[in-house]
């Protein structure tokens, strides 16, 4: 149980490394034929799972503080890879494991056992992979090698499927073309294409509907600094908008991360924003309801709802249909848990309506969803009384130090 009392917010923090970019960097490093030095490592369950998978795929790994050294060697030590609860991990490493000629099984735990993987089946078959799933869920068995060719896929459920296919396809024997229907979360694909380019591999994007990748390419081993995480930083910035002022360092406004869009929502809600080199300051002003389209950045729903709960009026957030297959059924969990503390939320088709006003305090349950736990801390800042968060340890998935960092900016917690 974590108890957060109403508080003012003041101070500065450094955002942890982006777990999305760190997982991509780990996967690529494992595929190189040299040694990569990755700077900025922040422990999290998802990144740790990626390191474990890279090791089991044959890489040599060592850590020195916030630096991870990975020497690639694609010679699997184990035919079973455990992705933990990492949605990106399972969707990224399945195509990568498919590069190997021997059967490999990928499994998961907790919420990952209920997250669909069936959208990967046909594209991998089209590219020459023998794949079997548990009726569209983990465990997954693959046997390659992935050959290349043409594959069609549905991008409406998750961009992570395309990310995995793009990362693996440069190592295929033949060129690969992906024809993608209704791609969501396009900024995450921009991140994938950028990091591929950073490691010496090219992929061509034609209007997010067709992607072509030349075969027989090779990732170049290098030294690489993983940028700060806008997803984790979004909660800290919302805390500043609600409680006083905060400066968050180690985040770049030139980032391709989708959750940089939190700045638009915070500004539209009335808070003051000041931008500097790799840092953002947010200061509290009178807050008002806002409208925001989170279709391309659905992970922002929890901090947006925490913000909207204290905004005068009804906030409208589009993209609610993207929330069903997250760590929890996130739209339903936000509705039920925030109702316990006096905030009414409705979902009308793809739009979430948050009725701002008084937050009473009370007890909410995180449902093993790291972003719900962090949203609970933020909404407590202006609540009438303390908010108790059950299952707070789930923040370890992405930001293990969140509550310790949060305590540092609370001036009378």
Structural commentary:
Strands 2-15-17-16 form a 4-stranded mixed sheet, covered by helices on one side. The protein is built from 12 helices and 23 strands. The model has no long low-confidence stretch (mean pLDDT 94). Strand 18, helix 9 and strand 19 form a beta-alpha-beta unit. The protein is globular. The chain starts with a strand and ends with a helix. The longest helix has 14 residues. It has 413 residues and is an alpha/beta fold.
Sequence-ordered SSE layout with sheet pairings:
Blueprint: E1 2-4, E2 12-14, H1 19-31, E3 35-39, H2 45-56, E4 60-64, E5 67-71, E6 80-82, H3 87-97, E7 104-107, H4 121-126, E8 130-134, E9 137-143, E10 149-154, H5 160-168, E11 176-181, H6 186-198, E12 203-206, E13 210-213, E14 223-225, H7 230-243, E15 245-249, H8 262-268, E16 272-276, E17 279-283, E18 291-293, H9 301-308, E19 314-318, H10 330-339, E20 344-348, E21 351-355, E22 362-365, H11 370-379, E23 387-390, H12 402-409
Parallel strand pairs: 2-15, 3-14, 6-7, 10-11, 18-19, 22-23
Antiparallel strand pairs: 1-23, 3-5, 4-5, 7-9, 8-9, 11-13, 12-13, 15-17, 16-17, 19-21, 20-21
Helix pairs in contact: 1-2, 1-3, 1-6, 3-5, 5-6, 7-9, 7-11, 9-11
- Mean pLDDT across all amino acids: 94
Instruction: Give a short account of the largest sheet.
Output: 4 strands, mixed
Shape: globular
Number of helices: 12
State the share of residues found in helices, binned by percent.
25-40%
Work out the strand percent: 25-35%
Detail the poorly predicted runs: none
Intertermini distance: 15 Å
Structural class: alpha/beta
Rg estimate, integer Å: 21 Å
Q: Please give the order of strands in the largest beta sheet.
A: 2-15-17-16
Number of strands: 23
